[in-house]
């Protein structure tokens, strides 16, 4: 483990000294030397992954500032390098048609609403979706699946302030992040808005 870490760090140093990016190759070297290094390094670590088209860097900067201000120890992908190898075994292919409009789908945490705008068609290869589409396109417009939910990983094509529109999903994410059941707050207004949107979009 120590030899693998030293080798990866030396690889990164050499790449930087030669004026090349050192964002992915050192990690690939480490994985080649020890295939389960990520499992070992992430043991007991809480991970926040931020994805999307716009706003990723801003969101990460806000999170970093919050952790630093709170005195919480953290590490961050400063370069913003993409994980080209991916993290889960599903795939997306382009479609000639864009899937645009409001979406309503049933999740284990209640009925969710959002807005989708994508030309990608995602196939989960047997992984569980976050929900089943009632109205809209979802992952691919074919199998009625929307998003993905496996362990503590939540994915969805729905955006347009997805969390404020779906307080039950938001509460679930907060409880999982805190690893405890949080004290309930009055979100009756948010629930009412959620139900009105569901009725409007169906």
Could you characterize the architecture of this molecule?
The protein has 202 residues and is an alpha+beta fold. Helix 1 runs antiparallel to helix 2 (25-33). A hairpin with a 2-residue loop joins strand 1 and strand 2 (110-123). The chain starts with a helix and ends with a helix. The strands form two sheets. The chain has a four-stranded antiparallel beta sheet with strand order 2-1-3-4. Strands 5-6 form a two-stranded antiparallel sheet. It has seven helices and six strands, in the order H-H-H-H-E-E-E-E-E-E-H-H-H. The longest helix is centred in the N-terminal third of the chain and has 16 residues, at 2-17. It has helices at residues 2-17, 25-33, 37-41, 56-69, 162-165, 167-178, 188-201; strands spanning 91-107, 110-123, 131-135, 145-146, 148-150, 153-155.
Task: Write a brief caption for the model.
This protein has 202 residues and is of the alpha+beta class.
Keywords:
two-stranded antiparallel sheet; four-stranded antiparallel β-sheet; alpha+beta; 6 strands; 202 residues
Strand-residue proportion: 15-25%
Radius of gyration: 20 Å
Distance between the termini: 54 Å
- Overall helicity: 25-40%
- SS content category: alpha+beta
Segments where pLDDT lies below 50 for 5+ residues?
none
Number of strands: 6
Task: Compute the number of helices.
Answer: 7
């Amino acid at each position: 483990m120590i030899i693998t870490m030293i080798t990866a760090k030396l690889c990164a140093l050499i790449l930087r000294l030669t004026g090349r990016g050192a964002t992915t190759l050192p990690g690939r070297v480490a994985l080649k030397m020890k295939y389960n290094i990520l499992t070992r390094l992430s043991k007991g670590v809480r991970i926040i992954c931020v994805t999307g088209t716009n706003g990723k860097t801003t969101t990460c900067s806000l999170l970093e500032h919050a952790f630093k201000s709170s005195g919480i120890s953290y590490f961050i992908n400063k370069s913003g390098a993409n994980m080209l190898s991916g993290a889960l075994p599903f795939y997306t292919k382009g479609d000639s048609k864009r899937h645009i409009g409001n979406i309503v789908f049933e999740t284990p945490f209640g009925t969710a609403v959002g807005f989708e705008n994508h030309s990608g068609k995602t196939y989960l290869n047997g992984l569980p979706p976050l929900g089943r589409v009632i109205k809209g396109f979802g992952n691919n417009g074919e199998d009625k699946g929307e998003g993905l939910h496996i362990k503590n990983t939540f994915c969805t094509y729905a955006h347009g302030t997805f969390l404020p529109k779906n307080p039950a999903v938001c509460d679930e994410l907060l409880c999982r992040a805190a690893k405890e059941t949080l004290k309930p707050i009055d979100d009756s207004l948010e629930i009412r808005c959620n139900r009105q949107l569901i009725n409007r979009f169906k």
